[in-house]
Design a protein that fits this description.
By secondary structure, the protein is of the alpha/beta class. The chain contains 14 helices and 20 strands. It has two domains: 5-140 and 344-492, FAD/NAD(P)-binding domain (3-Layer(bba) Sandwich); 149-209 and 252-286 and 296-338, FAD/NAD(P)-binding domain, CATH 3.50.50. Helices cover 33% and strands 17% of the residues. The strands form five sheets. Strands 1, 2, 3, 4, 5, 6, 17 and 18 form an eight-stranded mixed β-sheet that branches. A five-stranded parallel β-sheet has the order 7-16-8-9-12, covered by helices on one side. The protein has a three-stranded antiparallel β-sheet with strand order 13-14-15, with no helix packed on it. A hairpin with a 2-residue loop joins strand 13 and strand 14. The structure holds NADP nicotinamide-adenine-dinucleotide phosphate. NADP nicotinamide-adenine-dinucleotide phosphate is lined by residues 53-55, 138, 142, 144, 159, 176-182, 184, 201-202, 292, 315, 339-342, 457, 459.
């Protein structure tokens, strides 16, 4: 039987779009991009809370082959990323492949017909030679079951399901969570709400954000002489890379780099908060880099405002019109904001049921064995599957480094298939084992295993306490390896 499609790509964010661009370059055009949301853009479509912006400068946080000279700021607001996603989809003719409001529920490998059977929410089935999952890392919102939350009669907003235009003026608000999202959102709420109580379980490292509007003359320079924007990208990416490689991955060898970043964050806190007790509460008790650090010039300053209170004793329960802290403090509220992040390790990895050869279930395999994927892309017994949001796939530099590395991997793999005139690939168990050993080994120098991360509650760690999200390699090394992995690591048929 011939499949209906060459490729099913699940997810129309920057990952799925990058994969589609590369697969089209490889000559595959019969592609369906299935997306559960009603528009493209992934994270940048789903998230639209006030204050949303990139936290990797835009010259770096974009496809290197599709620079946008018109970013309004060094750290572009979220809405510009959504517009950029539309621009990319138009330019690379991706929209005709996209099907919105299509939830993929399951996929299974059919060994007889050598194709993937993909079941969608309406009960129908699509067949494809290749399956690409690009469902994101931070795509399944985490909504904790706080005691009494069902009795709360006010408004509840999760940051990933925002009500546009919601007006905080005069509101009595509680925010739960102090992750990267809350760091962007809290100053916005603090500026408007009557009162704001922030429930912090784990403090976060925050360093100053050097951000400014990009003048029109610079935009024109970037447009007319693209080399200038490439140079800006190179400088910014190199600085981030130094922080990542020396501050996080080689913590064991270069502790001072990490300590310097922590000192910078502490000085930043001191410059904005006078009260030593408040400073103590806002200071993390784990090493810099255990958890994703953030950038903000206004987050700490928000806690110095008279209408803002930091609550660190924990949450006891919610009542119809109040939230009770574990220390007994009762705070009347009419709006509850859940900045409680995403669930990676329980309900993602993978985002839906995937069954490969010999009945191997990907989620079960990852949970019962170690989380693993060869080069962060492929898994033994899953022929013709490219799982873009896999363990060890995420480059610490930027999501775009991740996807561009994966595009190189796709190009090499499909180039070989074409050369051989074959249609099926599968990574060998031996290559996968060797890759897992190598990344496990390389991670031993990182802050995750040498630093003090025990209290960080970081999503970089899975439920077994292993740091299996980041690929422990420099960007240059990742790109080189994606471009040159031994072809014997795959079996082709
Ligand atoms: P997050 O980093 O996972 O933070 C979730 C917050 O909610 C944490 O402070 C967590 O506390 C708290 N929380 C969760 N469950 C709780 C509970 N039961 N009780 C009390 N507190 C609870 O999620 P996020 O802030 O949405 O950020 C996720 C990631 O998105 C970031 O790390 C970043 O990679 C990305 N992001 C990027 C941008 C950007 O500009 N590009 C902006 C925002 C976010 P604990 O720490 O104690 O668990």
């Amino acid at each position: 039987m011939q499949p209906e499609l060459d490729v099913v790509i699940v997810g129309a964010g920057f990952g799925g779009m990058g994969a589609a661009i590369e697969l089209k370059r490889q000559g595959l055009d019969n592609i369906a991009i299935l997306e559960r949301e009603d528009d493209l853009g992934g994270t940048w479509h789903v998230n639209h809370y006030p204050g949303l912006a990139v936290d990797i400068a835009s010259v770096t946080y974009s496809y290197s082959f599709e620079p946008n000279p018109y970013w309004s700021r060094l750290f572009a607001p979220g809405a510009e990323l959504k517009r950029y996603a539309h621009h990319v989809a138009d330019k690379y003719d991706l929209k005709r492949h996209m099907e919105f409001g299509t939830l993929v529920e399951a996929a299974s490998w059919d060994p007889d017909d050598q194709l993937w059977r993909v079941r969608t929410g309406d009960g129908s089935e699509r067949t494809a030679r290749y399956l690409v999952t690009a469902t994101g890392f931070l795509s399944q919102p985490h909504v904790p079951e706080f005691p009494g939350i069902k009795n709360f009669t006010g408004t509840i907003l999760h940051t990933a399901a925002w009500k546009d235009g919601f007006d905080f003026t005069g509101k009595k608000v509680a925010v739960i969570g102090t992750g990267a999202t809350a760091v962007q959102l809290i100053p916005e709420i603090a500026a408007r709400a009557d009162s704001l109580t922030v429930f912090q379980r784990t403090a976060i490292w925050v360093v100053p954000k050097i951000d400014f509007a990009i003048p029109a003359v610079v935009q024109q320079l970037f447009r007319r002489i693209p080399l200038t924007q490439r140079a800006a990208r190179l400088v910014n990416s190199s600085l981030l890379e130094l922080l990542m490689v020396f501050g996080v991955l080689h913590f064991k060898q270069v502790k001072p780099g990490n300590r310097l970043a922590a000192r910078l964050a502490k000085a930043h806190l001191r410059s904005q908060i006078d009260d030593p007790e408040l400073r103590r509460e806002l200071t993390p008790d784990y090493d810099f880099g255990c958890k994703r650090p953030t950038f903000s010039n206004t987050y700490f300053a928000s806690f110095a405002k008279p209408n803002v209170t930091l609550e660190t004793s924990g949450i006891a329960r919610l009542e119809a019109d109040a939230i009770l802290a574990a220390d007994g403090t009762r705070t009347e509220i009419d709006t509850l904001v859940l900045a409680t992040g995403f669930n990676l390790w329980d309900v993602n990895f993978p985002a839906f049921d995937i069954v490969g050869r010999d009945g191997r279930n990907l989620g079960k395999f990852w949970r019962e064995n170690r989380f693993q994927a060869y080069e962060g892309v492929t898994v033994p017994k899953f022929p013709n599957l490219l799982s873009l949001n896999s363990p060890y796939s995420y480059s610490g530099l930027s999501y775009f480094t991740t996807i561009e590395g994966q595009m190189k991997h796709i190009a090499r793999l499909f180039g070989e298939l074409r050369r051989r005139g074959q249609h099926t690939f599968e990574v060998t168990e031996a290559a996968n084992d060797a890759f897992l050993d190598e990344v496990t080994d390389r991670l031993q120098s990182s802050v995750f295993y040498n630093g003090d991360c025990s209290t960080s509650r970081s999503y970089y760690f899975n439920q077994h306490g292993e740091a299996t999200l980041l690929r422990p390699a420099s960007t240059l090394r990742t790109l080189r390896e994606m471009n040159s992995f031994p072809l014997r690591d795959y079996e082709f048929s």
